[in-house]
């Protein structure tokens, strides 16, 4: 695990996640036009903090915790699946 992955995981701990999966897809985007650094990640975060929140509100909550990493281009792209524990268990 890289330092940035550790940083992302630590930042997201405030959501009290039941499950947190972070996959680095940066290697899939190397050399693409318009890619000027910063990692590409896929995130699954399962937390009851998301109860009653819309999909957009959930994504905003995650982005808020990582906003300086986006601003510094440490994270270029982040695909987010944010769900409650009951939603996650239903999908399994």
What attributes does this structure have?
single chain; alpha+beta; 92 residues; three-stranded mixed sheet
What does this structure look like?
This protein is of the alpha+beta class and 92 residues long. It has helices at residues 3-12, 55-71, 85-91, and strands at 19-24, 39-46, 75-83. It has a 3-stranded mixed sheet with strand order 1-2-3. The chain starts with a helix and ends with a helix.
Intertermini distance? 26 Å
Mean pLDDT: 90
Helix content: 25-40%
Which descriptor suits the 3D outline? Answer: globular
Structural class: alpha+beta
Strand count: 3
Low-confidence parts, pLDDT < 50 over ≥5 residues? none
Strand order of the largest sheet: 1-2-3
Question: Beta-strand percentage?
Answer: 25-35%
Number of helical segments?
3
Query: Could you spell the SSE succession in H and E letters?
Result: HEEHEH
Backbone CA Rg: 14 Å
- Describe the main β-sheet briefly: 3 strands, mixed
Secondary structure layout:
Layout: H1 3-12, E1 19-24, E2 39-46, H2 55-71, E3 75-83, H3 85-91
Parallel strand pairs: 2-3
Antiparallel strand pairs: 1-2
Give a short overview.
By secondary structure, this protein is of the alpha+beta class. The protein is 37% helix and 25% strand.
């Amino acid at each position: 695990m890289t330092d940035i992955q550790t940083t992302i995981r630590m930042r997201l701990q405030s959501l009290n996640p039941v499950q947190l999966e972070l996959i680095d897809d940066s290697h899939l985007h190397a050399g693409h036009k318009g890619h000027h650094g910063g990692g590409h990640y896929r995130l699954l975060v399962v937390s009851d903090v998301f109860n009653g929140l819309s999909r957009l509100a959930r994504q905003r909550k995650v982005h808020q915790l990582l906003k300086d990493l986006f601003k510094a281009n440490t994270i270029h792209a982040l695909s987010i699946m944010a769900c409650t524990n009951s939603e996650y268990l239903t999908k399994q």
